[in-house]
Specification:
This protein has 4 domains: 64 residues, Leucine-rich Repeat Variant; 87 residues, 3-Layer(bab) Sandwich (Phage tail protein beta-alpha-beta fold); 145 residues, no CATH class; 129 residues, no CATH class. α2 runs antiparallel to α3. The protein has 7 helices and 26 strands. It is of the alpha+beta class. The radius of gyration is 28 Å and the shape is globular. It starts with a helix and ends in a 7-residue tail after the last strand.
Length: 470
Amino acid sequence: MNLALALALILSPGPADSPGDLVKRLGSARFADREAASEKLEALGEIGLPAIEAAIDDPDPEVRIRASGLRSRVEVASLRRPTPVKLDLERATINRAIASFSAPGGCRICWAPGAADKPANLISLHEPATVPFWTAIDRICGAGDLHYLPSGPKTSRIGGGPQPCIYLAPGAEERPRADFGPIRMEMVGIRQYRSINLVPHPTEGPDGPPDPFVNPPFGARHASLSVELRMLVEPRMLIQRYGDALVVEAVDGKGRKLTREDLPHVERWGIALQIPSHACVEGLSLRLLCPIQPVRSIGRLSLRVPVEVVAPRRTPWMTRINRAGKGDSPRIGSPVRFEGIDETDRQFPRLRFSLASNERIPQFLALGGGLDGNGDDREGRPVRPEVTPDVLQVLDGRGQIIPWHEWPTVGDDDSGRLMLDLQLDARSPRPGDDQPPSIPDRIIYHEYARSTIMASFEFRDVVAPVEERP
């Protein structure tokens, strides 16, 4: 072999490492190999997730710990990025657009229930590069004369976990909107108020003159502006919590400030916990100041909101129920543990299990205030995980879901696990059916991947209609 050929063989790149090969190296005897494998798996992102998840049960503690950390980091990065969508449609039906659109990232798009007059027109959309999810939705709605409607998580298929969806319906709708990654904020209303104070207040107190914003003098005129908002996320995820909103800047079309000069404007939304988690949060309001003269437009409104988003992990945890009083050995790291079952009433048996409660509120979710108005909540204390029929399912031996409702929570045990009692409805779902009650066989728990995003939104040049009175 000549020297040139030998050098070519040495310097040429070898075949790309597969995710499975990289996972095996997480247990290498050499620290440098373990670190290199971790870096490459993290760089692969979601492509490497199936191999990483398979390693969560590895008997080697080093592999388990590294795989668990990698899974969390990859999931967090995925939840913070918008889903890229390739739009390359030539005279395509809306149904074809929906079919091609629903593939990337697990986002589900479908027709709204009861949408009878589905448009039959053909659309053409060509983008040289991928566009973010919400941009793609706007393009399709604009081309097809459609509007979208968010849905909550529908009751999942057996073992499938929560499945939110974006509905499409005929008829275009336009409203101000701003996007940050996978999150969209929409402005759905503007209300202006004017008032005259008729309650007298002392002009001087022990601490000096009263604050005119808190205790306005008798006869003082006041005007306020309320901006109504709603927040949505891509249909591959849900909103579980959101914190206080910080208004960075708010001015009207004439440049007049709509917030106080001396204090930052924080809207006390608090840490709102959504149970169950939702794809859309309605009824968010910003209460701004308003000049005495009506505001005819909002020149710029900029705000920041911390939002915690969640998505069910690909592989749920499964624990079988053993009539001897114990479940089979759970998977390593499983948060679910079967504790016992009372089948005295075969139609309404009571199932007891425990759930690892290691979920914490991120510190920066609260710019002010806490979950219960208590500052301790800002320090990241544990909170109760979500337990709903979308997240936790009880199946019988045939794989059919057994409905349940929760009894009052028993509490935590000494190890910090949450003890839960469920009353099952094991009767046949068909009235008058003489089949014997279903026998609980296994518990399926859909653990959430989660990420907290400090989302920034900006609205510009929004017209604020004013009612003209004679």
